[in-house]
Specification:
The complex is a heterodimer of chains A (about 120) and B (about 110). Chain A is mostly beta strands. Helix content of chain A is about 0%, strand content about 50%. Chain A contains no helices and 11 strands. Chain B has about 110 residues and is an all-beta fold. The mean pLDDT of chain B is about 85.
């Protein structure tokens, strides 16, 4: 069964450093998402992306965050200057189409630890 | 702000019992609800969904019930198995909201003992 893959599974970085989290969505999917989950808390929406553009973003997704689809397969989340509170599990997700009841397929996540 | 939440953070059951996980939502404009299962070290996995024009939907060993009057959603798991042990999240979506930005609740940890 096709799946969303994320690398690395764990990322440790120093505060103020830039990190890039990578995702390979399912190949025929067109809509891509980043969510994050701080330890013990709920999953929070960050951003959605379609046709090389951000279609929606949350308040969390401030100027420190950016997303990119650099080629036909990868979808990346960049945090320019990490803060301690950016420590979380970051999930990438994709769907084949946009619609009310399109099911999101999630990757296994990247655990980001900012020291 | 309005959000989706769960009644209980943890639920412990015996193998073979039926489990009921509850979720209260406050956004009356929500049109679509989903239950996700998250096992340790993995991303959320879709279990079952229901649209707001329905009050019940059944899958394999799972049933979702929606009560729009009291804004309540529940997930029933029949004959719970150890493999069902995970964190369960309910999530909601609104039809006019672009990008399918799901709003998740905080999660209920289901522990199944043999």
């Amino acid at each position: 069964e096709p799946e969303v893959t994320q690398t690395p599974s764990h990322q440790v970085t120093q505060m103020g450093q830039e990190v890039i989290l990578r995702c390979v969505p399912i190949s025929n999917h067109l809509y891509f998402y980043w969510y994050r989950q701080i330890l013990g808390q709920k999953v929070e929406f960050l951003v959605s992306f379609y046709n090389n553009e951000i279609s929606e973003k949350s308040e969390i997704f401030d100027d420190q965050f950016s997303v990119e689809r650099p080629d036909g397969s990868n979808f990346t989340l960049k945090i320019r200057s990490t803060k301690l509170e950016d420590s979380a599990m970051y999930f990438c997700a994709s769907t084949p189409n946009w619609g009310l009841d399109e099911k999101l397929f999630f990757g296994s996540g990247t655990q980001l630890s900012v020291l | 702000g309005e959000s989706v939440g769960l009644h209980l953070p943890t639920l412990s059951v015996q193998e073979g019992d039926n489990s009921i996980i509850n979720c209260a939502y406050s956004n009356s404009a929500s049109d679509y609800f989903i239950w996700y299962k998250q096992e340790s070290g993995k991303g959320p996995q879709f279990i079952i969904d229901i649209r707001s024009n329905m009050d019940k939907r059944q899958g394999q060993r799972v049933t979702v019930l929606l009560n729009k009057t009291v804004k309540h959603l529940s997930l029933q798991i029949a004959a719970t198995q150890p493999g069902d042990s995970a964190v369960y999240f309910c999530a909601e979506n609104i039809e006019n909201q672009a990008g399918t930005a799901l709003i998740f609740g905080k999660g209920t940890t289901l522990s199944v003992s043999s």
